[in-house]
Amino acid sequence: MPSAIEVRKIPLHSVSDASELAKLIDDRVMAADRVIAIIGKTEGNGGVNDYTRIIADRAFREVLVEKGADPEKVKEVPIVWSGGTDGVISPHATIFATVPEGDVEPTDEPRLTVGFAMSEQLLPEDIGRTAMITKVADAVKVAMERAGITDPAEVHYVQTKTPLLTIDTIRDAKSRGHDVFTEDTLTSMDVSNGGTALGIAVALGEIDMPKDEDVLRDRSLYSSVASCSSGVELDRAQVVVVGNAPGVGGRYRIGHSVMKDALDADGIWEAIRSAGLDLPERPRTEDLDGRLVNVFLKCEASQDGQVRGRRNAMLDDSDVHWHRQIKACVGGVTAAVTGDPAVFVSVSAAHQGPDGGGPVAAIVDLG
Prior knowledge:
Blueprint lengths: L4 E7 L7 H8 L8 E8 L9 H15 L4 H4 L4 E5 L8 E7 L12 E11 L8 H18 L7 E9 L3 H9 L11 H17 L22 E6 L4 E10 L6 E8 L5 H11 L16 E8 L6 E2 L2 E2 L10 H17 L5 E4 L10 E8 L2
Helix pairs in contact: 4-6
């Protein structure tokens, strides 16, 4: 049986700041050697050369070691940073840690559980193709087992980090006689995220195994729980499965829904309801009563260049990439719902939720 989970959201006061994590440990909210995953937003450009993710990663791992965790085990803790806090989005991190067995009573009511796995190595020629989809799907199944989840319906959030393509990895593939999905390194972020999302969807039985030519083309194929990020930090898929399981115990529960488009605030409220909060028919921020830990969203500019029948210019804008624009838009909608700008909103949502929308996961404190 997996352990119960303690989960807290903390601010980042600068890109290299992990002081609030240190405070959680000093205040004995959680132990350094029990931290099992960290998911957060940094204030860089969110692109291929967003090194704020590496800076934040180092700062948080250094604090865990400083506070007594085994340095070798700390290297294996999945820390997923999504770069880019466009608009009102505020840099922050959500920390997941196990709770000592004697500190919590098991319950038959499903409660938050987390599982982690790493895929086989993803070669540059795998990215955006069925080889990647298969390797990711296998890792998701391992993470589910470690989380104690047997029913895919109890998986509400799968956060991944995968490699994207760089000039060096493209050159490596060519030197071995292989081609790659794209030689545009920024586009490869969408390719990597999309291929990973399809792997999650396959693992959870949301879709059948797609073909290479479906990636980034057939947008009817998607996962409603995938949240995929990519970067230069690793060469495998790092997979964190978050769901609910009976017998675990603890205060927290997770639910999910989807935003049908960039303005679909109701999709966010539905995810919060799914997690277990009793809300009125037309809820307001005050109805959350401090019980929402965080929400996690992916977003994407609609391929038809419209929102609710109105044309926008995001996909034609050569000055500001659509990644930045849609992230700022959805971040504003989300913060208006939660009343808190520290929300996890990440862009590049190919095959993650419906086209022009995206998946939403919510963690709540049930007390």
